[in-house]
User: What shape does this take?
Amino acid sequence: MNKKKYKAKERLIIVLEGIKGNVSLGELCNQYGISQQTYYNWRDRLLSEGSKIFSYGGVDREKDVLKQEGSCLNRNSLRFCFIQKGLVTHGVYGSTWEVPPKT
Assistant: This one.
């Protein structure tokens, strides 16, 4: 038996149908070919992470913040590596890096 892969929007619709309670959970799961445990996993995830939708900027804003933090970590790692190798000295936290004089 092949399991259907449901997209996020389809999962949301299924979970909301279950929450509405117009049909029994067993009927709903049979209709979509999912187990009740799968439904409960989707529902629990929606309930635990759904508040992100209402935060300032929504889910996309949180992704942007995480990307910015990740790029900052990468830049800082690169700076640290350059400092360790003696490729740069002062100005590490500024917008420019100073190259040490050649000796």
Notes: Helices lie at 8-20, 25-32, 36-49, 58-84. The longest helix spans residues 58-84.
